[in-house]
Amino acid sequence: MKSKSRSNEGRYAYEGLDRVIHERARLSVLTSLITHPRGLTFADLKELCALTDGNLSRHLRVLEQAKLVEIEKGQEHNRPLTVCRITSMGRKRYADYLSILEQVVRDAARAGNEESAREFIGDLIPSRS
Amino acid sequence: MKSKSRSNEGRYAYEGLDRVIHERARLSVLTSLITHPRGLTFADLKELCALTDGNLSRHLRVLEQAKLVEIEKGQEHNRPLTVCRITSMGRKRYADYLSILEQVVRDAARAGNEESAREFIGDLIPSRS
């Protein structure tokens, strides 16, 4: 409980935790798309993310406006088919976001009381002897 | 882009991503507290999380109402001193939350194009041969 030095300013602030990506449904959509580089249909995304039509549309609009995803409206067997893909900017922003998530996991593991995280990152964290 | 089987229902939904914890400022506060099991003063938390007085108070209130933190108002050298600690329920909920974050990192790594995540989790992810 003693005062911290100035070097601790914002130590756990996680400033890089991009608000557009951090929202749970959008994190879900972007992770689905990053694992499917050829794109996913609206129906597939809805299923993978367990979102309603309205919610998925709303979050896709936010992601499209931020230029993180692109949405292609076409046809297949004379039926409308919407295909969503992550953009190269989306990949870059997602990678930056992910590096902050990893930092959170590392910080929690360093607390020395988060067994799951410790097993996860294994030998990467030096033991506090 | 082919249809996914039913087994993919909610595959990337991350249902366990606790909304109380996921909000960036609260994630910041809880990670600070989990790394300081003896507690942190209001001033220390403010610094570590780079939050204003008002924002920190607001988020602490949410965390206290959810019984994830406890706040002790005392005195030191005749001056008021507020000390915040994570509760045992807070630890449990944070650990559950963290296991979902780890799943996000694993899923992104599996995409095979997230170098940082791949280095991070190393040999834990089997190669897709």
Structure notes:
Two copies of one chain form a homodimer. By secondary structure, chain A is α+β, with helices and mostly antiparallel strands. Chain A has helices at residues 19-22, 24-34, 42-49, 53-65, 88-110, 115-121; strands spanning 40-41, 69-76, 79-86. In chain A, strands 1-3-2 form a three-stranded antiparallel beta sheet. In chain A, a hairpin with a 2-residue loop joins strand 2 and strand 3 (79-86). The longest helix of chain A is centred in the C-terminal third of the chain and has 23 residues, at 88-110. The radius of gyration of chain A is 19 Å and the shape is elongated. Chains A and B meet through helix 2, strand 1, helix 3, helix 5 and helix 6 of A and helix 2, strand 1, helix 3, helix 5 and helix 6 of B.
Please outline the helices and strands.
2 copies of one chain form a homodimer.
Chain A lengths: L18 H4 L1 H11 L5 E2 H8 L3 H13 L3 E8 L2 E8 L1 H23 L4 H7 L8
Antiparallel strand pairs in A: 1-3, 2-3
Helix pairs in contact in A: 5-6
